[in-house]
Amino acid sequence: PLDTIAQHCQQLRLSGLAQTVPHAVALATQEAWSLETFLSYVLEQEVSQRQDRRVERLLRQARLPPHKTLDQFDQDRLPLRVRRQMTGLIEGQFIPHAENILIFGQPGTGKTQPT
User: CA 69 to CA 93: how far, in whole Å?
Assistant: First the structure.
């Protein structure tokens, strides 16, 4: 039956579910889970794996330099007005307001690192 479930999961493009089911069945049997608990667990795993893959894909597509961090960013190079704005950006104050952030300037001026 696990092979059949795995095949169905592959057909439905639920690869995370296909990987999770064998472990989840063993865990559910050992801990005497209800069907609802089992289903909730495997679906949570699928959602989590999809979110992880999405983040990985978006980071790859963004082509951000992996070795650059905000800790390494020299804010002293920025004008005072921009340095004040950076604090709010770093703290994510724009997120609750769903505001877009635009960073522009000449090539080589460090626009990519804060992203």
Answer: 19
